[in-house]
Amino acid sequence: MLSDESQDQILKKTVLHSTHVESNAKMVPFGGWDMPVQYADGIIAEINAVRNVAGIFDVSHMGRLEFEGENAESFLSSFLSANLPALKIGRGKYNFICNEDGGIIDDAMIYRTGDQSYLLVINAGNADIDMEWINPLVEKSTGFTMKIVTNETAMIAIQGPKAVEIIDALSNGEASGIRRFRIGSAMVAGISATLARTGYTGEDGFEIIVPADQGEKLWNVLREAGAVEAGLGARDVLRLEAGLPLNGNDLSTETNPFEAGFGRFAYFEAPNSIAGAALKRISATETARALVGFKMTGRGIPRAGLNIHESNSSNIDESNVIGMVTSGTHSPTVDGGIGMGYVEQKYSATGTKIIIDVRGRSVEAEIVDMPFYKRS
Q: In 212-352, where do the E strands start and end?
C-alpha cells in the first residue's frame, strides 16, 4: 500500500497535518504527501470503528479538478470512460482514465455538478501522471475552463453505519437527502460543504469538501460527534475487504478495465474517446487473465508480488505459476488472510483451489466471490 518515497524528500502536507501530529498519528510518505498511517489505538481499532460506528479519513491529498463550460462534457469524454451525456446533474460515476491501448492510467470519480460543470477526483499517487496526460489535452482544447482546487479545499471522508446519522445531525437533516453516488451541498456544523455520498470502505458515508481554512474545524466537530480518526493502514484493509482495487497495485497501465472485472465502467462510445477503439476491441473477446479475490485456507498472509500456483503443484516453481498477488492482508472482519491477484482466465472460477508462495512455503487458498465483506 505505502510508497517507497524517501523520508528525505520534501513532502506535501494537507491542511490537517498538524491535527494528525497532535493526535500522535504515525506519519508516512504516501503519493508525495506526509500522511497518517495509523493513530494511537492502532489499525484494528480503526477498522472496527468504521465497521461498527464511523471513522474519518483525511483524503485532502486526492486531486480535485473543476471543469466548466459548453465544451467541458466533450473534453472530459475524450479521456474518461464514463458516459457523460447520460450523467444527470448531481450524480457521480466511477470510471477510468485509459491510454490509447486501453491500459489504466488511473481510476477516478466524476460528478456532474451543473448543466456544464463537473468535479473530477483523482488519486493522489497518480496526480502528477494524470496531469501529464490531461494538460496537453487542455492546451489543444477550448470552450471550457479547468481549475485545480486541491490546495484550496480540504476533503474528509466519514464512513460507517453511523456516518449518515452523524452528518444529518450536523446539517439539519440535509445530508440524508443526498442518495448513494450523488453529490450535493449543505451547511455542516455551520460550514458550507460539498457532500458526495461515496467512499472507499464498503460502508455508507460521505466524502466532504470544504474550504481549506475550515478543514480543521470540521475534523474536530466530527471527532466530537463520535467519529474515530483512521489512517491509511485501516483504509487499505477496509477497501480490500470491500473488494475495491488500488491503483498501482491492482490497476496499472499494464491492466485494462475488462480483465480487472470493471468492464461495466468502461464506456467507449464517445466519438472522441482516446481509448475507445482499444476498449471496444478488448471488450469483444475474453481476456487472457482476470483479477480475482481469494481467501487463504492455510496459515499465511498474502502480500503483493507473491506468485500464485496451480493447486495440484507438487513443487512451487516457474513451471506452474498461474498468476500473481496484487493486494493482500489479514482481515480482522473476515478473520483470515484475503487478497486479490491476476490469474490465467481458466483458473478464475469461484471455488478454484490455488497455492500462494509465501516466502517459499506453499499455502493453500481458494478463489472466492468479492466483496469479502458486504454491509448489512
A: 228-229, 289-296, 307-310, 321-331, 336-344
144 and 190 part of one domain: no
Nearest-angstrom CA–CA distance, 264 and 258: 8
Closest to 77 measured CA to CA, from 282, 287, 284, 279: 279
Most distant CA pair in the chain: distance in Å?
64
The answer to whether residues 218 and 352 belong to one domain is: no
Q: What is the pLDDT of residues 85-118, one digit of tens each?
A: 999 999 999 999 999 999 999 999 999 999 999 9
Contact between residue 80 and residue 108 where contact means Cβ atoms under 8 Å apart: yes
Coil, strand or helix: which one is 366? strand
In terms of residue numbers, what domain contains 215?
Answer: 17-60+151-241
Q: What is the DSSP letter of 347?
A: G
Give the pTM: 0.95
Last residue of one domain, picked from the residues 91, 120, 148: 148
Q: What is the spatial distance between Cα 362 and Cα 95, in angstroms, rounded to a whole number? A: 37
CATH of the domain at 360: 2.40.30.110
